[in-house]
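Section handout 9: paired folding examples.
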Amino acid sequence: MLFRSDPDNALTHFRIGLAYRDLGAMLEAEKEFRRALELKHDPSATIPELAQAMLALERFKEVLVDIKPASGLAAPALADIAVARGKAHLRLGAVADARTQFYLGMKERPAESRLGLVVAALAERDAKTAQRLLDELIAQRSEEHTSELQSH
């Protein structure tokens, strides 16, 4: 009902984008996230979602053109953008650029960033580095799980 009475509601477009994403309808999700941005929905929430939809659609070059860090974005959003750009670089074969992006995302998104670095190492056929990074990732996740159990 709200959508019919206010089709220019940015939050509504964002929420519709999330629903499409959850249904796996990434083309529709992308359109809704773009519309939400046009209507000035919070870019810290919307840009990372748009990036994920574009990655799912295998629009890797477009991710690198359209999805960029901007001043005023929250640190987690900047990290999500860096990880998304890292994934796009990887899929395009630019491993060094991917690695740089994953390092940029490390503070806020350590697991995703470290996993990206594992894939980058494997792309360069560096099994030793990939194994070390994977061991670090597993240790980190184990510590997080232990902390969660102790807090309950």
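Moving on to protein 2 of 2.
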Amino acid sequence: MKSKRSAKAQSKVATDGAREGVIQGAAWREAEEVTQPVHFVAPRLRANQSAAQGWAQIVQAAIRQVRANEAGARRGANVEYLHQWRVGLRRLRVMLGMARDPAWRDRLTPIRKRLGAFSDLLGEARNWDVFVLDTLKPLAATGTDPGARARAL
């Protein structure tokens, strides 16, 4: 559904959102190389801040989680990187869907859809990892004994 706000009103929403901290470029900068998968770090929200500021802090924390785990997931260094990458993307997608302003929601919907499609692909990769690690690896460790293989499954 298209927003009925004028272009000027939409621009004001974007400007006000940026002023309140909705968009912070620092969250998108290259992530530092991490040596362990990174879990979500909940931001410290203040009682006197606006809902938009709190929303922005949570979005930024989700982006940091995504960026921090991306390189490790791409390298295949540890399956937990992939898992945390997916968790961060899911959290980001949910937060983008919680934008209260219709103009923001309209602008964020295509991003949410793309994140969802990408998350689906990562889900297939995660399913493969789980299958290999939880099924094939224990099965291979049983050797040729049919009884041991049956117990492993």
